Amino acid sequence: MPSLLSFSQLLAVITLLSSVVGNPLGNLESRWNKKAAPKVLIISMFPPEGDVWYNIPEFNLLAKNITVPGLSPLYPDVHCTANKEVCELVTGESEINAANSINALTFSPLFDFRKTYFLVAGIAGISPKIATLGSVTFAKYAIQVALQYEFDAREIPQNFTTGYVPQGSTSPTEYPQSIYGTEVFEVNDALRQLAIGFAKTAKLNDSSDAVAYRANYATTNAYLPGSEPPGVVACDVATSDVYYSGTLLSEAFENTTKLFTNGSGTYCTTAQEDNATLEALLRGDIANLTDFSRIIVMRTASDFDRPYAGEADTFNLFYANQGGFEPAIQNIYLAGIKVVEGILTEWDSTFKTGVKATNYIGDIFGSLGGTPDFGPGSMFNNNPVTKRSLKGRNAARGHGA
């Protein structure tokens, strides 16, 4: 038979239980305080984008390596400075990898991201109508351009300009009637403008091959921006798992960008992850784990999304020595470090309490409140997006509303 607790032992147990039960909020706060709470989290998508941040003079991102369950098995660690003020991870490429990695990180008990600024920092394709190789772009909108019906271009009606048709619709120019919620995200434009200001103080990298290749675009008036030296540009990002290339597809998704954003978006960069990343961060905000107003989407231009006049589309993608990859990688760091340092330097005066958004931020559903300035409106403000979605889905399948 086990011995009974002595009076002193019983008193010690009662005292311990009283301290735990009597101050639950204090204990919860204590657990939060033990988590890593970075001021900036850099989101890379594949190793070259991450490697450019390691062994830099400004800080050591490899001082702390934190393994997080649920990250890519190829990139299982979050890398942080010794004080954990700046951290970085590699998600893996494509929407599925990005969504899973960012979702796992957002809900990890190892981190407190409630005041963290998220810097998406990767390379992308670029439209020569807007910018050129090596340019640094900052997006307000991320558009999931390939979330559509698709017909082979050889089988489309004569009055169609593309084989892509918005879901639930019957024409490439009709707004999608079947809405999933990830079609468009809008981030904080006031924060974007501050990031642009920081990035413009950087001296950008370029290459002789890029100079020579971009000169070919000067023969087409619409592509003159593509022939200029790299700069810092405000324009938007198209997300597609399909690594598309060529004039026809690029023009089709340029039109999709305008359509999905009610004419206010500017198509310029092409990437594979951003809408997935933003959806994961939005769900974190809904759970009070992240702040969607603290997101910066920065993409640097590594290659043109279409050929210059007289060049074959396949040559532009497969064989051309565009010379943009290395400058784009270097400019992630050269421009990005200015953004990171700007946030850290002005933390107490500007960034700690947050940068107030003057525009709508969030998804097409209005999940975070407010009314989207794109799409049919907020489903959470009694706007019947769901009904339209069901009607469009049924109509597309030959059923009545």
Low-confidence stretches: 1-5, 13-32, 382-401
- Kindly state the number of beta strands: 15
Supply the number of helical segments: 13
Strand content: 15-25%
Summarize the biggest pleated sheet: 13 strands, mixed
Distance between the termini: 73 Å
What Rg is obtained from the alpha carbons, in whole angstroms? 24 Å
Question: How would you summarize this macromolecular structure in one to three sentences?
Answer:
This protein has helices at 7-22, 24-33, 47-51, 95-106, 189-199, 208-214, 224-227, 247-260, 274-286, 313-318, 325-345, 347-351, 385-396, and strands at residues 40-44, 64-67, 77-80, 86-90, 117-126, 136-139, 141-144, 148-150, 164-166, 184-186, 232-234, 236-239, 267-271, 295-304, 362-363. The chain is of the alpha/beta class and 401 residues long.
